[in-house]
Design goal:
The complex is a heterodimer of chains A (546) and B (140). Chain A is 73% helix and 2% strand. Chain A contains 20 helices and 2 strands. In chain A, a hairpin with a 2-residue loop joins strand 1 and strand 2. Chain A is globular, with a radius of gyration of 23 Å. The relative contact order of chain A is 0.20. Residues 1-21 of chain A have low confidence and may be disordered. Chain B is α/β, with parallel strands linked by helices. Chain B contains 4 helices and 5 strands. Chain B has helices spanning 14-31, 52-70, 84-98, 121-126; strands spanning 4-8, 34-42, 74-81, 103-108, 132-137. In chain B, strands 3-2-1-4-5 form a 5-stranded parallel beta sheet, sandwiched between helices. Chain B is globular, with a radius of gyration of 14 Å. The mean pLDDT of chain B is 87. Classes of the chains: A mainly alpha (546), B alpha/beta (140).
Amino acid sequence: MDKKPQNQSTDEQASEGIPAPDGAANLIDTDYVIGQDNITTNTMGLNLDLHGKVFSISAVIVLLFVVLTLALQDTIAPIYDAIFSFLTGNLAWFFILAANIFVILCIGLIFSPLGKIRIGGADAKPDFTYMGWFSMLFAAGMGIGLMFFGVNEPLTHFGTSFDGGSWAPLAGAEGNAAGAEALAMAATIFHWGLHPWAIYAVVALSLALFSFNKGLPLSMRSVFYPILGERVWGWPGHVIDILSVFATLFGLATSLGLGATQAAAGLTYLFDAPESDITMILLIVGITIIAIGSILAGVDKGVQLLSKINIAMAAALLFFVIAVGPTLLIATGFFENLWNYAVHLPALSNPFGREDANFSQGWTAFYWAWWISWSPYVGMFIARVSRGRTVREFLISVMLVPFFVSVLWMTTFGGTAIDQYVSQGIEAVRDAGVDLQLFIMLEQLPLSQITSFIAILLVIIFFVTSSDSGSLVIDSITAGGKVDAPKPQRVFWAIIEGAIAIALLLGGGLTALQTMAVSTGFPFTIILLVACYAIIKGLMSEPKAV
Amino acid sequence: MFTNIMVPVDLGHLEALEPALSIVADLAKKYDARITYVSITANTPTSIARTPQEYEQKLEAFAQEQHKVHGQPVSIKAYSSTDPVANVDTILVGAIDEVKADLVMMATHLPRHLDIVMPSHGGKVATHTDVSVFLIRTAQ
């Protein structure tokens, strides 16, 4: 008997083939077999492998929601509004406090000895290069929002701060342009900086830890194992996973709808394309088709490739604006804004006794709920591509690097727009609709036809990368944590996302949907607080990498 | 004529592979060839194994069982991937060189319309390698 191959030793197999998961890790002892509750069928040449309860209940709830929202729009809309107002109005302190806890935990872990632990085991090797990894993190986590709000948010906060009142961050700086700008930039960076990325990092780190190091399925329920034990495989776990599907699917469909609106507005502005439902439907169909191509190509050749293209284009646009815009202002603004952020951070993140109630509830609490409702999707995707990184490396890359990029982006786009409005007196940039402000800002700079076109392309590709990575995530949750379920399931979810977006865009239910997506932020905040506990407990039982 | 036959296996669907495995054994005996069982798993825990290492051990056990049946020398090569379903073809094509196979034998399903958008792995591998590829249709 010849056990070993002639041309390779067992050691070589471990180093060449399997990137060793390896080394010391501490698997959780459970009898649960991944996929044991799954239904597998082969009908009409299509293989399916699904978690019966999670898949069917999520599918039924989603369909019911869409039908009810469209059929009973007038009756249901006030209910959503009431839920949303209650959550942000009465629980703003809870969202703000929770987000602070996430930031403190992440920063604490970077500096603690637990930061040395490696995701995937002490000897695990990363699956992606820094560039590929970072591109995917950024494209999944924030890309589209920066396009949408990069000009709008700094300008809006500037306006309210200058006018004063409870919609202004920290009650504003009435009549003081410099003070208003400082507050506007600090508030914007606050909403796009450490806190959102800490939210993503908590979800991603907990999922990665319990999947790669503890051997549990890549599913939200696994994070609850330290608390619920074997019960996570039953109904408590089903509910957690269904909630994740719900948040992910609705968050994505809302974004698809909003993105189509912005891209359509851009196309109308640039090429006089008819501003009609047909344009938006064609855009959503187009985005969905490219997304399907991307998920069939997979994470490496689809999502990673598109993310890299997108980051390269976004970087080109960013540096173009820096070069032809107010370069010196942006360069000094970057450091000034960082300083302003640091100065105002304690007040902005204070959960209690706020004087700027409208700002802290309507903006901050809304954003936190929104980021949190997105976190299962972004977090799970980040988790999936982060094997082989140490906790410290992971947190620095998921939190600090995107933070500095966000600061630079907001300084460049927001700072340029404020400069156009304040110094050059261009009011159009302030008065335009949310989906057009970016294009009006670019119009004041050279080559605006080209840059506007690139901006539209960026919006579209960012949506493709959201749609494809989102479909991968939903597929994995509804397949009981399997990442190797048959491909047609991914296609199914991509189509469902597109279909929901179209249905609600036509039926006018997009706002209701957005409200609903944000409302899932509340239960998820509780889930994330549990995840914080689980992360610490899980990391404490891991051997440290050398 | 053939010295090393590479046989891609999926430990999750062994029942579908059975007919192909016996044909592989017959051919290996005829040419006195080694059989290298190649398999790809997810980085994340799967229904077969909770870590890629455990998967590799199970593949080794499978290969030894096969060895007992046909008596030919066996070896294994396990790969892990972030997205095994999408990357399987590329990894298999790379594996042919890495294990120095001169024949690939793999089970494949009957042609179907869906192949236009999702081609069969066997067909894809055959079009991307210089070595001989023997596709064994599984009865439907």
